[in-house]
Amino acid sequence: MAPHSPGTDQIDTLLWIGFVAAVILVIAVNAALLYAVRRFRSERGATPRQLSSGRGLQFRVGALLTGFATLLFILAVVLTDNARETPTTGEAGLASAKSEPLTIKATGQQWLWRYDYPNGAFSYYKLVVPADTAVQLELLSTDVVHTWNVDELAPKADAVPGKTHKVVFSADEPGVFEGNSATLSGQAYASMRTEVEAVSPDKYEEFVETQKSEIEEAQDRVVGLIENGEVP
Amino acid sequence: MSPSPRPELVADGYNSSSRPRWAQLATTADHKEIGQILICAALGFLFIAGIELVLMRLQLLTPENTFLSPVGFNRMLSLYGATSVFLFAIPFALGFFYYVAPLQIGARGTALPRLGQTGLALYVAGATVLYAGFLFTPSEAGVNPLAPLSEVAFLSNNGVDAWATGTGLATLGFVFLAINLVATLRVMRAPGMAWRRVPVFAWAATVSSWLLIVIGPVLLAALTMLMIDRNYDGIFFADGSGGAPLLWQHLSWIFFTGTYMLLLIFAFGAIAEIVSTFSRKPLFNRPVTMASLAAIAVIGTLAWMQNMLTAPMGIGWKYYAMAMSLALVVPFGLVIFNLISTLVGGTLRMRAPVLFALGAISAISIGLAAELCHSLVAAAWHLKNTTDATAATHFALIGAAVLAGFAALYYWFPKMTGRTMGESLGRISFWTIMTGLLLGFVPLFFAGDKEGQVVDAYKYFDNGALTTYNVIASIGVLILFLGVLLTILNAIFSRANGPAAGHDPWAGDTLEWFTLSPPEPHNFDVLPDVRSARPLRDIREAIGHRTRRSEQAAARESQPVA
Fold it and tell me: B527: which of A61, A143, B103, B271 lies 20 to 30 Å off by Cα?
């Protein structure tokens, strides 16, 4: 994963901390295991040595493990809190999102994501956002549980019917970021993908305007067809 | 066989030997028969689960493969989940608990034999319903059928109903077996066997049984609610109108997290017995180990929300789940530390049971360490529901249920059958399983973490590295399956043809080695007074003393009188 948002930077750091902690534990256990097994080979035939199982030793090991877990807990809370922070919109970002993040509604449905922009435009599959701008996604679901997952930009988050789940991110540079939904949602779950395109604020404004006018045009045409009786 | 004296006649639950074998098996309430039936059935379902996993891995061999249809894959996935958890892992662990624990505490039977018999019947009924459902329309809702996908609006065929009925019947059966174990271990311990002298495996049986009695009904409640939703217009897990989809996640994860802990407690209990017997040393710091096992049951189950770190819940709940998960480092660490300390300085005999036990510790350490990363909230936001999670769960649970389960099988097989399982086939099987486990699941760590491959998906899209990881994983799982098959075949052949083992082939210290192999229906003719945690060692030492004394006396008497 290459992080492209302040939040995912923090996630990436925590992943490294977790990875190092896990490697330390695995190496410690397996090295101790190999050491214990190797020793018996050199002492084959000897009578077993009875180690005293002193309380002090257990206490020291317990304290060491407690310290290890506490340290991890503190680091994880700090980094998680940082990752949850709403990023600030930069100089190159969308001017209207300087004070409040740009809020876009993302609705999961079997097996597609729909994005509703503030101006009433909407798009399916592909989300277009301005780069260097704080974006807040409001995740909703119309049917089953889906997980919105574009891991370079934002934390995974579940869209659960009946609940709104907010995710914030800010794409640091223009680019295209892809992701699969991450909760089994039925037959076409594996194809339930999405794409986030970060563009310059001007291009974003242009996109939502075009999208809006095209949608209105299409709707007018459908309404016209119905009024003319061409569509029952 | 010559009639043996029976100082205490307990008629309930024993079979008349004049009946045909099938009738005996169908009506038995003897804990040894029931334990063996559970173990045999579990091994059969392990074989089936293996086939299901191999089929899914074949589908994932190449990107956008069409070997299985999307629906076929989801059905295979749902069946694999139910088979491996409800029909293999839990009954395998319970089978050993049910067979061994009463023998270890010197009981002549169980406290509530007919309740245990009903438990077995319910398990068989559950397995039958699940696989009868397989012949028609299996569930497509996945390993844990999250509502609302499992609701009738989205999966309207009766697959989920069969899943819920099957797992529900089996779970009720496990709760019955657990109640009997708790009662037996409470009231039927041999004279002198205080809790502090109870063998660790029997202690693990008590802790696991209590755990099942707590978590089993939680799942049963959730299943009942799901069935009401599906069949009687209920709204427990529907959104809006007062229902809550997250409620299903809470209830089901309490059960599945508890089950995860149960399997690890079983594994550590079995490993503790094996490591201590084969290194001829008492378990290093028994009291701390026993307390840690109990702590794992409590803290581990309280960490259920560790599975819901991406759900729309308050951040405080997520920190709470992380605190509980990280707190588990202490009891798990102490147990593993004490197991390894037991080995240090011992005269270890490297037989098949030890090999499997050590492999289990190694695999479990990888699984738990990976699970640690999944507990760090923000890290879980990246790792959750990727194949990294699949790998973490499989390392821990294959380590606990397959490797430690096989260690228990090799260890107690001589007690059950009077014959030893093939040693060299066991070694080959062990190294095959370890190779398969590492090849099959280490690549999934990378596929999940680096490439973001998601779980439960029937296909993935081409990207050079992802294909390589999946090809290696598929080959690994195939090797793993072959290794598992070798031990199953070993057990089948050794049952009739293995070398005769004698009553105490490993020089064990606990009471199950005091009786015959296989034991008589009433387990023990006479029982020693238990004066320590190692009653058989006390007996061997007493016999040694007496023999030496009588030999010395005989030597003195044979001296010519001057």
Answer: B271
